[in-house]
Write a structure and sequence with these properties.
Keywords: Periplasm, Signal, Transport. It comes from Paracoccus hibiscisoli. This is Lipopolysaccharide export system protein LptA. InterPro entries: LPS_export_LptA, LptA, OstA-like_N. It is found in: Periplasm. The radius of gyration is 17 Å and the shape is elongated. It has one domain: Sandwich (lipopolysaccharide transport protein A fold), CATH 2.60.450. A hairpin with a 2-residue loop joins strand 6 and strand 7. By secondary structure, the chain is mainly β.
Length: 158
């Protein structure tokens, strides 16, 4: 009789400040081409940057990142190689059955990582995990959530 109550209380309690999970249920192909679609594009040849605005969708393999604005920083001296992408405004990262929302995301293309910050909300099926920031290693699918981590787990879920 007491066990279901203890389990329910444990699920309602905040998790420690760091939680590890997987994202996307699969490994992303970080060597695949990065495709970008948007309503507008502004290119600055002087500093080697580009700014996509309006309904921006970035795709790489099975991963999709959408936002209102995405600033692209190219590698120094190489306008053909993307160094990083910084997404702001209604940021959503989707990989397989998993989706994460945040205020900002920085995709470090060379490292194959995405750092989401600002009210991060991760949905995996019926399970939800929130925190201040989440780092996703796209090669392994491993994710770490930090800062006031909270979780709602559905019975029978993972």
């Amino acid at each position: 009789m007491m066990r279901p109550l203890l389990i329910a209380l444990a699920l309602c309690a905040p998790l420690p400040a760091l939680a590890q999970t997987t994202f996307g249920g699969m490994q992303a192909d970080t060597s695949a081409p990065v495709e970008v679609a948007a309503d507008n594009l502004d290119v600055n040849q002087a500093d080697g940057s580009a700014l996509f605005t309006g309904n921006v969708v970035i795709g790489q393999g099975d991963m999709r990142l959408s936002a209102d604005r995405v600033a692209v920083q190219y590698a120094p001296g190489d306008q053909q190689r993307i160094d990083s992408l910084t997404a702001t405004g209604n940021v959503t990262l989707v990989s397989g059955p998993d989706a994460a929302e945040a205020a900002e995301a920085v995709y470090d293309v060379a490292a194959g990582t995405v750092l989401l910050t600002g009210d991060v909300l991760l949905s995996q099926g019926g399970n939800v995990l929130s925190g201040d920031r989440m780092t996703v290693d796209l090669a392994t699918g491993a994710a770490q959530v930090q800062g006031r981590v909270r979780s709602v787990l559905q019975p029978g879920g993972n």
